[in-house]
């Protein structure tokens, strides 16, 4: 298996017993979210947790006038991110998640100790993986996520993670991915894809970003699904 371009942060104590895979948003890189590892590793509960922050490829994004930037899939319109969805690019990036999960299992991590998450574009992929990943894992995280390639997901979905916990955090002042898109995501994945254990947390005043309250809730979620003290 060829190595996937990612920032990998080893657990403080070896061997790693848990793994967090987290995908960044458009125009960012894995290092943009590596603060999560820095924050969590200050807590002894995460001493055996490793972190993987994959880097998206550089591509021309239609909504940016085809200017090259890091992206997991193309976006055609900022007014409607689901317009002319880049199905092939999305599925290719979805496969990155499956490969990274397989990599962690190969490294000796129990799949029940793996969490997959992301922000914005990365969150859209994390949500899709909740409906399609063939391996049952501990949990999924969507920060400011939205539904993509819905028709295709209905074709390829499976029930492996139907009861796996999903944490979705969204700001009510998000102008890039409006809260309505987050609510649509919950509706689609619970009602159409059978992802039943889905919690949408709304953060007043938060835009297209993260806030301390959301990160605190996220840490609690990690501890719960990974069964950490």
Which regions contain 5 or more consecutive residues with pLDDT less than 50? none
- Which second-level CATH architecture applies? 3-Layer(aba) Sandwich
CATH homologous superfamily descriptor? Alpha/Beta hydrolase fold, catalytic domain
Helix-strand topology string: EEHEEEHEHEHEHEH
* Ends apart, CA distance between termini: 34 Å
Task: Output the structural class.
Answer: alpha/beta
Rg calculated over all Cα atoms: 16 Å
CATH class: Alpha Beta
Strand content: 15-25%
Structural overview:
With 229 residues, the protein is of the alpha/beta class. It has a single domain, classed as Alpha/Beta hydrolase fold, catalytic domain (Rossmann fold), CATH 3.40.50.1820. The chain is 31% helix and 21% strand. A seven-stranded mixed beta sheet has the order 1-3-2-6-7-8-9, with helices on both faces. Helix 3 links the parallel strand 6 and strand 7. It is globular and about 45 Å long. The termini are far apart. The mean pLDDT is 96. Keywords: Fatty acid metabolism, Hydrolase, Lipid metabolism, Serine esterase. Pfam families: Abhydrolase_2. It is an enzyme of class 3 (hydrolase).
Can you summarize this structure?
This protein is of the alpha/beta class.
List the helices and strands and how they pair.
Elements: E1 6-9, E2 18-23, H1 35-40, E3 49-54, E4 58-61, E5 67-70, H2 87-106, E6 114-119, H3 121-132, E7 139-143, H4 150-156, E8 166-171, H5 179-191, E9 198-203, H6 212-225
Helix pairs in contact: 2-3
């Amino acid at each position: 298996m060829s190595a996937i371009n990612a920032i990998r942060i080893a657990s403080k104590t070896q061997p790693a017993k848990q793994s967090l895979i987290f995908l960044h948003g458009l125009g960012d890189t894995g290092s943009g979210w590596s603060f999560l590892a820095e924050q969590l590793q200050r807590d002894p509960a995460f001493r055996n947790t490793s972190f993987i922050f994959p880097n998206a490829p550089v591509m021309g994004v239609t909504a940016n006038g085809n200017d090259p930037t890091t992206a997991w899939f193309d976006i055609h319109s900022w007014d409607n991110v689901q317009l002319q969805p880049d199905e092939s690019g999305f599925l290719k990036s979805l496969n990155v998640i499956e490969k990274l999960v397989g990599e962690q299992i190969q490294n000796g991590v129990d799949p029940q100790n793996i969490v997959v998450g992301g922000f914005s574009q990365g969150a859209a992929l994390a949500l899709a993986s909740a409906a399609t990943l063939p391996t049952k894992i501990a949990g999924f995280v969507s920060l400011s996520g939205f539904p993509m390639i819905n028709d295709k997901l209905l074709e390829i979905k499976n029930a492996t993670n139907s009861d796996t916990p999903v944490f979705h955090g969204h700001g009510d002042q998000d102008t890039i991915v409006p809260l309505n898109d987050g609510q649509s995501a919950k509706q689609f994945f619970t009602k159409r894809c059978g992802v039943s254990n889905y919690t949408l947390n709304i953060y007043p005043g938060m835009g297209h970003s993260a806030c301390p309250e959301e990160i605190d809730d996220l840490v609690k979620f990690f501890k719960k699904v990974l069964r950490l003290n």
